[in-house]
Amino acid sequence: MATDFLLPWEKLGYVRDIDDGTIELDNGEKVRWDFDLVVKDHPEIVYAGTPERLIECLFNEMADHSYIDIFLATHTMFTNSREVINSLAAHYKNVFVDSEYCENPSMEILKKKMKIINVIKKWLVGYPYTFGKDKDTSKAMSKFIQIIDDEQDEKMKNWGEFLRNRWSSFQFIDLDLNYPQSIGVEMLGEIMQQRELRILDFDATELARQLCLKHQKYFKKINAYDIITYLDQNENENNNINPLSDFSGKIQNWVIAEIGLGETQSIRTKILNHIFKLILNLIHYGNFHGAYDVYTGCANFLVDRLKKTWSKAERNKWKSIVTLMSPTYNHNALRSEFGDLDEPALFPLILLCKDMYQLNETDNTWENTKMINFRKLRSYADKIISNVSRGQRISYEFLLVPEYKIFFNKLPLYEEVMLEEIYDQIMDQEKKKKK
Question: What HEC string does 225-271 produce?
Fold first, then answer.
């Protein structure tokens, strides 16, 4: 056995066989192996399996709360919803209990069927977006619910009615946040009528709050399927992460432009200090995504080379920001700080993508087998999906200022060539002053 399957087990840290069907890993863990399922002992945790065996684990003794959630959130990486529904329906119709070893077979059958129904209930309530808009998937679900409806047991009929109502009302809801609107800021409104708003026109604290509302609106629309398919360019066109990514590019570009458009060195320094306050406020409100966007704009090479502008800036504040945003040890400082935050907390999109790339570096299946690496999917859900959900469960309670909303929607995107020309002129000015 060990010779035939040595290569796959090297990925887990294979050490030795203990007995037939049990393997010890280099970290001391013991896993049970058969030809289509790998399970860690004490406590039982599914490590790998064929799609069919992973489906069976949804309603057997290994169906812990986290397993079901992780499967429902990630199953589209290795199968589709229609296949899962058809498999669950087949198991539901063919529930078997050995009467020789069971005192009340009918009750045991009912319990097993209820476990499958609970999977469907959790699926419809928590992960409806995974169904997609496939007609065959819709037909499969309708047929399955009809099977439950046809049960003689009254309790099962009630569950069938509940699921049917839930399914019939299911639709792809465009999540939009209806925040209460404030009266507005008269000064900003007056400025907007006269000229374009500049970053010094905004209060750094209020700007941070409004960015929190804007960013969370994007985060609220992201689901597990978006995260899974974001790296797949073939399925990326309608991904809900795209608007957030586009807005991030605009914010970074805007920060670079605002600093460069400062008429004098002292004004540019003033803008830098104002941006430092903005970043620190975003960090304070748990918007690490927004803070990282603004930080990236400040750290751009065009801005970084303005030595005279930086010489008068509040370097202590910038140093504390750089320490937090440092990529050292895979952004360990930022990740640690983020982990201690109360919700809502918005995780940087750029780090989300980095984590997705790292998890996708290895195959989803065990080599020489047809088993899915569920331990990897568990890590995927724990490290990535959980970080996104921390920005979705609880909403910011700031008042929406209409002027900010209008400004964000009209945020310009400066061309890179134009920005380079602006900064080249600034460099020429600083060099002349030096002479």
Answer: HHHHHCCCHHHCCCCCHHHHHHHHHHHHHHHHHHHHCCCCHHHHHHH
